[in-house]
Amino acid sequence: MSITRRLQLVGCTTEDKWMETALKVAFATSDMKRVDQHFGAAQSFAIYALDQQKVCFVEAVEFGKLDMDGNEDKLVAKIDALKGCIAVYSQAVGASAINQLKLKGIQPVKISPGASITSLLESLQQELREGPGSWLARAINNTIPADPSRFDEMEQEGWEE
């Protein structure tokens, strides 16, 4: 199943410097207010960018109606739509989707049905301010590009067998 509609807001995305360091997270939602969808059958995703001080709605991605039939082909479009996200929050997510998401560096997060997206964003910001937990710390580290000079010191030491 492909994307039927994609709405991107230009407000935050034009702030290049901020977007380079902001973290993107997605929420499986039918109303853009609550997490109320299973990942594989999600009608839409609300995608936000955030840091410790700021939250910005970035885009909404909408899909056609899907059945939870175990057909993994539908996951490709959904996972591709999450490019650049560090996490996706949903009511439930299947094992195959978990594996595919993790391969793309996206942490699946299972949330109680009806959880408020605003509350979840506030919790994430609070966690960033207080020191991120394990999955969030890993996700942040994965967004930092590897320093090409990280092996220079080892090279200067030489190599002996």
UniProtKB/TrEMBL annotation:
Q: Which family does it belong to?
A: Belongs to the NifX/NifY family.
What range(s) does the Dinitrogenase iron-molybdenum cofactor biosynthesis domain occupy?
33-125
Output the superkingdom of the source species. Bacteria
CDD domains, sorted: NifX
SUPFAM superfamilies linked: Nitrogenase accessory factor-like
Q: Which UniProt keywords apply?
A: Nitrogen fixation
Q: Which InterPro entries match?
A: Di-Nase_FeMo-co_biosynth, DiNase_FeMo-co_biosyn_sf, NifX-like, NifX/NifY_domain
Which Pfam families does this entry report, sorted A to Z? Answer: Nitro_FeMo-Co
Q: Would the keyword Lyase turn up in this protein's UniProt record?
A: no
Organism, as annotated: Candidatus Thiodiazotropha endoloripes
PANTHER family attached to this UniProt entry: IRON-MOLIBDENUM COFACTOR PROCESSING PROTEIN, IRON-MOLYBDENUM PROTEIN-RELATED-RELATED
Q: What is the name of this protein?
A: Nitrogen fixation protein NifX
